[in-house]
């Protein structure tokens, strides 16, 4: 497809920019960072609330290293993994400790920019109106006709010409919506008219039915209140003239855009195709039904990512469950023709974490390999062929959401020809503790009037806070005091209705 070829060409340009940015951000992130998981007392059934991290406490900070034991480095090297060094060059990770420290990863804002620059918009195509919902307008919506396209009665009543009283037609016939009255209304005359009907030439106003009274055996219409010239007539072109720009390119087609497009005469829209996304869920421990049991847990990401991706304007072509099988992962990546593959889990350094080694075997280019954000720091973005991108989401569910919003959303936005999200800000109702070098993404509830309340249960493996949230607050390195203004990443379905959030 020509579009794909064009996309690939500008993708190369985008890659250069992205890699330069990546190199810069790598240079900025050289200090080693221990990453202890919190060691908290767990409480059994019937005990108090399950353990939680208060929102002003960083769940990553409260686990001191065991006495006399050195904390592990943040990013454990893998044999043979290619990475971009601080100068933008590449090297092999040998795992023998001789490679430069990868540090904390790309700063969060830079990671989002890198993801947005990693690709180019897909080739626009026409779509019937009925199939255009959720796509992005690739061309501005311009009016194909005046709206209204004729002088229209805004009320049920009478079209009147000149000052009253007015003489009514002897046959009592009126003008209904959809019926074109052709006779010119002469001064001193009136004709019954329905809302939405075309106002006859010569009419100077519409008199609402509740403001008129018919006397003299139905012959004469009197107004019970003064009406002004043009009253209750919607003049042709009041909303737009033919050729007016109604909605800019890059707008997500929602129901209102569909309605407006139909009103002005469109049968199809030129839209960017929905980016096609394939989800690969990794992990032998995952169950797809029933209760967690014997060390096995329910897959929380399969059910969450599909709808979330669709809400971001993507088409989910498949969700595959691959277990911890490197060969299956490699085969699935090779076989995929999606614009973006999302993997979940397997991004870290465990014995069955196959994402890095597999991508290395496939000769992938690393665009982002770790981000200075909590949760979600092992997230990654790589390209393993022309137009073939993979975003690796960490397995911890809230960390996976952080990866989705940090890397997948900007990339999907670019593929779909949408600009960056409109920044939204709010004032924190409580302080949020920070980390020296990492951004934090914290679920918050909209408290109205631009205030956001940080929610509890925001640990990386938890979804309880997120389920009650309207947005994720972007808390900069160092944390944010109560009253600080922070950026919010809205959740696609949230409308500020989190009244009962904990
Ligand atoms: N030595 C190190 N270990 C870890 C590091 C590190 O820097 N050094 N980072 C930790 C952080 S932070 C995260 S996050 C995780 C990321 O791990 P993976 O992406 O490799 O994910 P897994 O190990 O496969 O799983 C992590 C966790 O999440 C659960 N999980 C996985 N998939 C699902 C799913 N679909 N639904 C629900 N839960 C899922 C899995 O059972 C694990 O509990 O690595 C840390 N380790
Ligand atoms: O703690 Mo990990 O940062 O992604 O959840």
TrEMBL record:
One of its GO terms (cellular component) is cytosol. Gene3D superfamilies: MoaB/Mog-like domain, MoeA, C-terminal, domain IV, Molybdopterin biosynthesis moea protein, domain 2, Molybdopterin biosynthesis moea protein, domain 3. Its cofactor is Mg(2+). GO terms for biological process: Mo-molybdopterin cofactor biosynthetic process. Keywords: Magnesium, Metal-binding, Molybdenum, Molybdenum cofactor biosynthesis, Transferase. One of its GO terms (molecular function) is molybdopterin molybdotransferase activity. It holds the Pfam family MoeA_C. Residues 278-414 form the MoaB/Mog domain. Pathway: Cofactor biosynthesis; molybdopterin biosynthesis. Residues 1-16 have a biased composition (Basic and acidic residues). PANTHER family: GEPHYRIN, MOLYBDOPTERIN BIOSYNTHESIS PROTEIN. This is Molybdopterin molybdenumtransferase. It comes from Streptomyces morookaense. The lineage of its organism: Bacteria, Bacillati, Actinomycetota, Actinomycetes, Kitasatosporales.
């Amino acid at each position: 497809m020509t579009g794909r070829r064009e996309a690939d060409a500008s993708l190369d340009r985008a890659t250069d920019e992205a890699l330069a940015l990546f190199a810069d951000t790598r240079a900025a992130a050289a200090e080693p960072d221990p990453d202890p998981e919190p060691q908290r007392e767990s409480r059994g059934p019937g005990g108090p609330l399950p353990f939680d991290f208060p929102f002003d406490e960083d769940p990553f900070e409260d686990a001191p290293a065991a006495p006399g034991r050195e904390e592990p480095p943040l990013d454990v090297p893998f044999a043979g993994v290619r990475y971009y060094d601080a100068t933008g060059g590449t090297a092999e990770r040998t795992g023998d400790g001789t490679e430069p420290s990868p540090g904390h990863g790309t700063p969060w804002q830079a990671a989002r920019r890198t993801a947005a620059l990693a690709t180019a918009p897909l080739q626009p195509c026409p779509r019937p109106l009925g199939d255009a919902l959720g796509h992005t307008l690739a061309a501005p919506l311009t009016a194909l006709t005046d709206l209204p396209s004729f002088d229209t009665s805004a009320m049920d009543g009478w079209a009147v010409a000149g000052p009253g009283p007015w003489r009514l037609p002897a046959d009592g016939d009126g003008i209904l919506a959809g019926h074109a009255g052709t006779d010119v209304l002469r001064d001193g005359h009136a004709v019954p008219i329905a809302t939405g009907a075309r106002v006859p030439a010569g009419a100077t106003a519409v008199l609402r039915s509740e403001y008129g009274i018919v006397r003299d055996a139905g012959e004469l219409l009197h107004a019970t209140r003064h009406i002004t010239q043009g009253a209750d007539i919607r003049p042709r072109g009041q909303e737009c003239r033919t050729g007016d720009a109604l909605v800019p390119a890059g707008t997500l087609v929602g129901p209102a855009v569909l309605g407006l497009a139909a009103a002005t005469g469109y049968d199809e829209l030129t839209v960017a195709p929905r980016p096609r996304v394939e989800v690969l869920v990794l992990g032998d421990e995952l169950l797809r039904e029933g209760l967690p049991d014997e060390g096995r847990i329910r897959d929380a990401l399969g059910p969450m990512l599909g709808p979330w991706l669709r809400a971001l304007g993507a088409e989910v072509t498949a969700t595959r469950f691959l277990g911890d099988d490197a060969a299956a992962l490699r085969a699935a990546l090779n076989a995929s023709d999606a614009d973006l593959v999302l993997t979940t889990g397997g991004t870290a350094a465990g014995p069955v974490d196959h994402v890095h080694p597999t991508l290395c075997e496939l000769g992938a280019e690393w665009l982002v390999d770790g981000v200075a954000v909590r949760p979600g720091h092992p997230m990654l973005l790589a390209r393993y062929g022309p137009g073939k991108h993979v975003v690796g989401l960490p397995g911890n569910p809230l960390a996976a959401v952080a990866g989705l919003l940090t890397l997948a959303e900007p990339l999907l936005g670019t593929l779909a020809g949408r600009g960056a999200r409109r920044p939204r800000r709010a004032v924190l109702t409580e302080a949020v503790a920070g980390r020296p070098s990492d951004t934090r993404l914290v679920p918050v509830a909209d408290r109205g009037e631009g205030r956001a309340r940080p929610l509890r249960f925001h640990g990386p493996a938890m979804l309880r806070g997120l389920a009650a949230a309207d947005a994720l607050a972007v808390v900069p390195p160092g944390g944010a005091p109560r009253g600080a203004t922070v950026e919010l990443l809205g959740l696609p379905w949230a409308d500020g209705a989190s009244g009962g959030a904990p």
